[in-house]
Each structure stands twice: as structure tokens, then as C-alpha cells.
Amino acid sequence: MTDDTTGLVLFTVTVAAVATLIILPPGVAAAYALARWRGPGRGLVDTVLALPLVLPPTAVGLVLLELLGRNGPLGRLLDAVGVEVVFTPGAVVLASAVMAFPLLVRSARSGFEEVDPRLVAVARTLGDSRARAFFRVTLPLAWRGVAVGALLAFSRALGEFGATVLVAGNIPGRTQTLSLAIFQYTQLGQDAQALRLAGVAALLAFVAVYATEGLTRWRGRRVRA
Amino acid sequence: MAGTAGARVSLELSVRLPLARFALEVDVRLEGASVAVLGRSGSGKTSLLEILAGLRRGARGRVVVGGRVLLDSAAGVDMAPEARRMGYVPQDALLFPHLTAEQNVRYGARAGRPSRVEEAVALLELGPLLHRYPATLSGGEKQRVALARALATDPALLLLDEPLAALDVTLKERVLPYLLRVRDEARVPMLYVTHQLGEARVLAKEALLLEDGRVRAAGPASEVLGASARGLLASESEGEENILEGMLERPSEGGTRLRVTEGLSLWVPDAPELPPGTRAAYAVPAEDILLSMGPLSGVSARNVLAGTVVGVEGAGAGEAAATVDIAGTRWVVRLTEASVRELGVASGVRVHLAVKTAACRRLR
User: Which terminus in chain A has less CB density within 10 A, N or C?
Assistant: First the structure.
């Protein structure tokens, strides 16, 4: 691997990891709320959260660009405090995070749905507050769903292209990830380079998906009371 | 019955909770040493426990346990479940599957609060099970762990939901003998839901009879667990049994006897492995007892007990149940209505009961 490739891999993995960590707290909170909330509006929230999964990624990127661009409503606020997001590494993280969020929420939610609420009730009678029971019973029993969701989100972030290219551009050494680099090399006719990077990407994806599968199997094998 | 009075905690229940088919309306005061709550399935028994534990939203009224106000909707008091000190044991145990038996038992023990972990482990004989996960425990073992988990928090009152009726618990595994120890040795007041009259008779000092969410009878167990209880539970009192608790003796002529009271000892299946003096509980099914009007001789049954009929009532489908007093203990005998008529079985009549040794099955 050339230094160039090492840098690309490091940047790509870091971006995916940071994006996953950022969405973890709100993702777990949203998943738990969706798993327990029985009132109206559930279907609507579900649908909105699933949108990034089904929309063309470029459409999501466009929305982000409009929001965060210098003339966008959020961009103007950020500009006022001297923060620029568009076409920065931060934009790569943001695009990946948005695209990966629904995957985390879906898996974590099914993890929470498997937890019998009566176990939480028992924990309460044994002296736990609501919050304590969440961390001692609900989360430990749902953690594999959360972990699988985080790995899926990480894998999704690794290969993100459409939203990223719109909101972060394709700037070598600044916002360029593996998938963006592959695109660039093919555009330049350097198919051998592109193929080499594709191989590296395949290896990364393999490791991430294999880990996810392993966790899923473990979760399935789990003995139940 | 050799049990002690046990600890008591006064109970004041005056609650209303709308359920699917009817409203649960309970208004009783109990001494609260050991209370059986009886009723058919769906009569509101479990809901009543959940109200006490603070797990039911929407209950209105007053719940006072041992002077502590847990619920007073008029005054806006609704104590959180974690503050109530109710030791809740659900029917299906609901152990935490990600924790070992020991971690389950220790779950509610906190620094700076009285804990009865060691006592609970010893009392329920959990030593060999402590390192195991719930998925590897049998139904009876799970219930013992759940009981210990509740007991370990030093609860003001144990709430037991049909602890003796879970489907996967075999006769040998029944927790009844352990419940007797919890009552008499740990001396924790308990309120338990059951539909088994035999169990209620041996465990309870007081009883509460529910029908469609309303109290049909409440008070001393000896009064409540009579005719009206059987009538109410008729469809579910199949397999009614007499439960006897006492001390084992090994007379010189061989065999094993259970000494229940001064005037009542029973031959039970020989159990040489149990040392004399062991406390034990036995179940005798009501349909396995033979009732005779005259003295019995030349029968193979080793236990022939003289007593007086104190009540007879129909149990439906041509069946009847006679309650017989033998040396201060109450026995229930199943017979047909035809036999009742032909023999003239009625209150006050002297009778003899023949009980085969093999019909006495040791619990645990």
C-alpha cells in the first residue's frame, strides 16, 4: 500500500467510526422510544426515520447542502459563529452519519422490542429507578441489537458516496474517502488504481460484515429464560 | 398445624381499577400475616398484586401497608414501585436472563440497606444453583431463585403470584415447603394468589375471595376457605388436595410416620434417608381418601383416622366434598352425591377415613 492509500483508508475508517459514535446516543434513544411508544404518530416517525434508506443518497446530500450551504438556514447560523461545514471533513462525517442513522435505529429498536417490559417492572420492585432499570436490565438485554446496529451503521458509512460527494465534494487529501477515490480514478481512466482501491474497500467491508454476522449469530444462539 | 404466627403487617386496601370486563373493587382490612387471595382465572387477583407493587397505572383509592401509605389518590400519593418495599414474585419467576442465579438474588441488595441475601440463599437451598443462568434452571428452581431475590431485599410484604401453579413445576419441585419456611423462619408477611384450596389452607391465616373483581369473602382463613370458596372455585378445584405439615418419626417397628399434631400421625412412604425430626409436608389428594361410616378393620390402608364431618357440599357433576375434622385438622374428602345420600353423610356424623400410605406424596 502506498502512503496515499494508507491515508485514504485511515480517513475513511475514522470518518465512519466518528459518524457511528456521534449517532449512537441519539440513535439508541430514538430506538428505545420507538420500541416503547404505543401512542399516535409512531408510524409517521418510523417513516421519516427510514427515508434516508430509500431516498437516492444524492437527494439527501442535496438537502444537506441546501441546509448547510452559506445561504441555507443552518449554514447562515453556523457562518455567524465562524463554522463552515460544507466541503470539509466534517461534512463527510455528517453525510455518513445521516445515511447510517436509520440502520442503527432499526436494529437497536428490534433489540429493545425483545426485552420483556415485565422484567423492568420486576427491577423496579427490587428498588431500581426507571433510569437504573434501563441501564441494568433493558440495555444489557438489548445490547446485541444495539451493537449489530452500530456495525451496520459503520459499514454503511464506510461506503457512503452519493450524499458525501454533494455536501463534501471530492477533494483529495481533504474530503476524499475510498469510494470517492475509486470514482475519481475511473473518471481518469486509471482502472488499475481504481481496482486496487476496490479490493481494499472489499476487505474492509468483509471485516465489518463478518463481525456483524458473528454478533447476529451469537444473538440468535443466546439462550432465553 | 405446627407453624408459628409469623410476622404481620396490617393491610388496608380500598382500591378501584377498571379492567377489561369489569372493575376491580376491593375494600378490606387485614391483619396481614399470611393472606391467600383466591378466585377463578381472570377474577382480578394478579391485578390486585400489581396495584400493591405499584405496577398498575390508573388504580384509584388507598393502599396502606404497615402504616405506610403507598397509594392515596385523593391526596395525590402514588409511591414509586422502587420505594414500596414489596417483594414481588411473578408467576413465571421472570428472572433476569443475563444474570446468574446469584446475581439475580443480589439484584435488589444495596449498600446501606438491610439485606437478607445469605439468609435467603440458605433458606431456599440455592447454594448449588448460584453460578447457573436462568435458562438452565428448572421451573421449580426458577421460582426458588425468584423468591430469594424478593426476600433478599428485606421486603415489608411478599407478593406471590400463583407461586405454586406454574405449569412447568412438577410435584416434587413445588415450592410450598419453602414457602412454609419463609413464613415460619424468615417471618416475612406474605400475600399470595392461588386457586388451590389445599395450599391456601396450609399456608394462610387469612383469605380473600375474589369474584369478577369484587370481594366475596375476607377474613380468617378457617372461615373463608369453607363452602363458598369451593363453590366459587368449583370448576378449577379439580385435584384438590389435603396438605399436611409435621415432623417425621421413625418408630422402632419400622417405617416412617408424619406427626402432624398431638392426636394425629400418618404413615407415609418409607423414607430412611430423612432423619427423625425433619420437618416435611405431604399432599393427599381428596379423591384418594376412603370414607367409612363404621369402624374400619381388615383394610390394607395403614392410616385409619377417626373424625367428625363438619360440612358437606356439592362440587358439581354428581360430586360432593365432605370436610372432616380430625384432631383439629381439616380434611377434604371427595365422594359422589349418591354416596352422600346412601350413607347419610352430614355435619356432626362420626366417620373414619382410610388413607393409603402411597397416597401421601411428599412435597419436595
Answer: N
